[in-house]
Design a protein that fits this description.
Low-confidence stretches: 1-28, 264-308
Largest sheet: 5 strands, mixed
Distance between the termini: 60 Å
Helix content: 55-70%
Number of domains: 5
CATH superfamily of the largest domain: Winged helix-like DNA-binding domain superfamily/Winged helix DNA-binding domain
Mean pLDDT: 79
Shape: globular
Structural class: alpha/beta
Strand content: 5-15%
CATH topology of the largest domain: Arc Repressor Mutant, subunit A
CATH class of the largest domain: Mainly Alpha
Length: about 700
């Protein structure tokens, strides 16, 4: 079976090799890893045997594609569901990978006592090469290169390597397959554009795009147009009728598809074809919206300009109690949601005076969105029964009419205003990331050359969320492009500070003070451009503490961020962190607990629980400190900061054997920490708190 890498290699010239990150010579020899289809390994064109163990091959694919160093504990938790000896299972798999990958003069499996990585820096990994090709822009890439790249997608990513019992890996695999399919779609979209005047060549790429997203009306229109122009009018009309029916059944506005149906090129061919006499009848059956030359009303054009940014409209929640005297509760929740959403500031929220005009009007959500200029609509209902209340909310794409998210909240009624605030907060913290995800998908579908600042920022944010070193570097490069277009964008500078902050966490012990300085510079630019940018203030506060040890300035910045956006988990987390080191750990706990409630995901929970452990340790509640440290470790075994707090708390309790065992986890990960480590990464304002932590660690085995 020919490999994807060899197929692409055959058509690359030297200039294109730079865009694809490899040269044709490099791909025709050396080490190659084929991830598309069945996982295969080649050296100098010869297929190498891979371990029979599916988990071992999945481990190889995961390490190759993520391209970063992992703790052994992380890999154990990802692939093995606690057998008798999970670390032994990992060692066995690594020994098999060494046989397959290592060379006499080069080790490619880089493993020490605590961490594992692969060195594939000079190898050809097909998915990474194709991703880099797309990310570099396809405008100057030769058409034959694009065709060969499409052929590389012979099968799904890592075919046959599903691990249903390894839930976290399986979740990653599904996401990685979606990303690979997205790469293929971008290649097909570019080829479809190039073959605009050659329907026979464009047809397979239109079909591929329709397979990727059946509701992509632009792709459906291209497929129908290609069929018409090839003289296959019956198939074109059948395709049109079928997808139109499906869109209508799903409640999706089919305006884009209707426009494609009336495409002038298609109509010219129809007029010249033997089937031309059927065209008027088909047009009349399709309805008035298909009449050529009918312009959209001016109001729709104005709304379209607004829709370039994702405005959100919150409609009045329906009161289902039937008692007009109780409608105030539903109105109160609606107003709380409008206020809280507006504080995020990265998308506009339609004012209450506009949305409440739609109370009791049973209009299609698409019409509401068009009239208000909103891309997303939030609507819901409230039902009270005795001492309980049920609130149902949903987020709807106003262009398609599809529901993006929905949730039900059941609560006991005690304090009515506290209940309104609680439910509104929960709705907002779930809606905001859903809007962000929907917008990122839109940005990913746009051609690189047509991206504006908004799209670039969304792509950068998606890279930040993925969180790997290469992802964060790509995010910074994307944000630099955004700043070239609009250098005075406060939001872009804040995202740049956020990317720098996340990059500093990966190499936390290298030089946190200098890293914090870079975050601080970007955050300061953000707040100078917009003093109401809550994210800029939050990042300015945390970096000010790390860089300058200016606790009062850091507290003021975090308090400002929280005043601007009380529902931002990051602002609560940073303020809690500042309070811990500022000598006010009791004040830190409510903010850390709020952040955990607002963002309970495992990656954030392990950090927050470890910080809560530190708070309890500093206030003298050692039992709670131990409990929270262990909860943090249960979320992520490799959380060194949680192990430090656990060892210190156990040491202060006199449980020296347990403390020593916990401390060995710290030493095993990075060696014996020295005085500089604690001075740099535990910037306590008071000597009392510093001595308390170090005293507990000394009981556990720390020597300074």
């Amino acid at each position: 079976m020919k490999t994807a890498s060899i197929q692409v290699a055959g058509v690359l010239d030297a200039s294109e090799a730079d865009a694809a990150a490899v040269s044709s010579a490099a791909m025709s020899r050396g080490l190659e890893l084929q991830c598309l289809g069945r996982l295969e390994l080649r050296r100098d064109g010869e297929v190498l045997p891979l371990p029979r163990s599916r988990k071992t091959r999945a481990l190889l694919g995961y390490l190759a594609l993520t391209d970063r160093r992992y703790s052994r504990d992380r890999l154990v938790s990802l692939f093995w569901s606690v057998p008798d000896d999970p670390r032994g299972a990992l060692r066995w798999s690594l020994s098999k990978l060494r046989v397959a990958l290592d060379e006499p003069d080069r080790r490619r499996v880089l493993a020490d006592r605590d961490t594992v990585a692969l060195d594939l820096s000079d190898a050809d990994v097909d998915v990474i090469r194709l991703r880099d090709l797309v990310d570099a822009g396809l405008g100057d890439v030769k058409t034959e290169t694009l065709l060969a790249a499409v052929e590389a997608f012979e099968g799904e990513l890592f075919a046959g390597l599903d691990l249903p019992d390894s839930h976290e890996f399986q979740f990653w695999l599904v996401s990685a397959r979606e990303s690979a399919a997205g790469i293929r779609a971008k290649l097909d979209r570019e080829l479809l554009r190039r073959f605009a005047d050659d329907p026979a060549c464009g047809l397979p790429h239109a079909r591929a795009l329709v397979d990727f997203d059946p509701y992509d009306q632009e792709a459906q229109g291209a497929l129908i147009s290609a069929l018409w122009r090839m003289g296959e009018t019956a198939r074109a009309e059948a395709q049109y009728r079928q997808i139109l029916r499906e869109l209508e059944q799903e409640g999706i506005d089919a305006a884009a598809l209707r426009n494609a149906w009336n495409d002038r090129n298609a109509r010219r061919i129809i007029a010249a074809s033997p089937a031309a006499s059927d065209a008027p009848e088909a047009a009349s059956r399709a309805g008035p919206a298909e009449v050529v030359g009918v312009a959209e009303p001016p109001a729709a054009e104005e709304a379209a300009s607004i829709l370039r940014r994702p405005a959100v409209a919150v409609l009045p929640f329906d009161d289902m109690s039937g008692d007009p005297d109780k409608a105030y509760f539903a109105d109160g929740i609606t107003e709380e949601i409008i206020t809280a959403l507006s504080q995020w500031r990265w998308f506009p929220v339609i004012a209450r005076t506009s949305t409440f005009a739609y109370r009791g009007r049973n209009l299609p959500v698409e019409d509401v969105g068009r009239q208000l200029g909103a891309r997303y609509v939030v609507q819901g209902s409230v039902r009270r029964a005795g001492a309980r209340v049920r609130v149902v909310a949903q987020l709807i794409d106003a262009e398609s009419g599809l529901s993006i998210w929905g949730q039900r909240y059941d609560r006991e009624i005690s304090d009515i205003f506290e209940l309104q605030d609680d439910i509104a907060t929960q709705i907002v913290v779930e809606i905001e990331p859903e809007v962000a995800r929907a917008e990122r998908k839109r940005a990913e579908r746009r051609k690189p050359e047509s991206l504006d600042v908004w799209d670039l920022n969304l792509r950068a944010l998606a890279s930040i969320d993925r969180g790997g070193p290469r992802d964060l570097q790509r995010a910074l490069e994307t944000l630099d492009r955004s700043l070239e277009i609009e250098p005075h964008s406060s939001y872009t500078h804040a995202l740049r500070a956020y990317a720098l902050y996340n990059r500093s966490l990966i190499n936390w012990t290298d030089d946190p003070v200098s890293a914090a300085g870079r975050v601080m510079d970007a955050a300061r630019q953000a707040v100078e451009l917009d003093d109401k940018n809550w994210l800029g203030h939050a990042l300015l506060g945390i970096s000010t503490m790390w860089r300058l040890r200016d606790y009062d300035g850091a507290s003021a910045a975090e308090e400002r961020a929280l005043a601007l956006n009380p529902t931002a988990p990051l602002a609560h987390q940073f303020l809690g962190c500042v309070r811990n080191f500022d000598g006010r750990p009791a004040e830190a706990l409510p903010h850390l607990a709020s952040s955990l409630k607002l963002n309970p995901g495992p990656s954030s929970a392990t950090l927050l629980l470890a910080d809560m452990s530190l708070s309890h340790l500093l206030v003298g509640d050692l039992d709670q400190s131990v409990t929270y440290a262990r909860r943090a470790i249960s979320r992520y075994w490799g959380n060194t900061r949680a192990w430090e707090r656990l060892a210190a708390a156990l040491g202060l309790q006199g449980r020296t054997a347990e403390a020593a065992e916990a401390f060995q986890q710290i030493v095993g990960r990075g060696g014996m920490p020295g005085p500089e480590y604690f001075t740099t990464t535990y910037p306590f304002r008071t000597d009392e708190h510093r001595d308390r932590l170090l005293g507990g660690l000394s009981e556990a085995g720390l020597t300074l």
